[in-house]
Prior knowledge:
Order of helices and strands: HH
Amino acid sequence: MGFFAKYNGTTNVRLVRLERLTWVLIYAGLVALVLGGFIVRTQGQDATAWFVVGTLAVATGVVLIYVRSRMREDR
Length: 75
């Protein structure tokens, strides 16, 4: 099963921070989208702000996944 190689992470501190930031942005953005969905009926303008912030966070996280895939691990 060479295709599913085990990934043990990296020891490069810069890359570890980037990976953590990526997933924090994605999950926080998804939580913001869900919160916007809960308040959309009562507070429309606030819900729009939550949707915009959540969408930007998720989009930034996805871009960081692409950036990380292009970075090399220097040991």
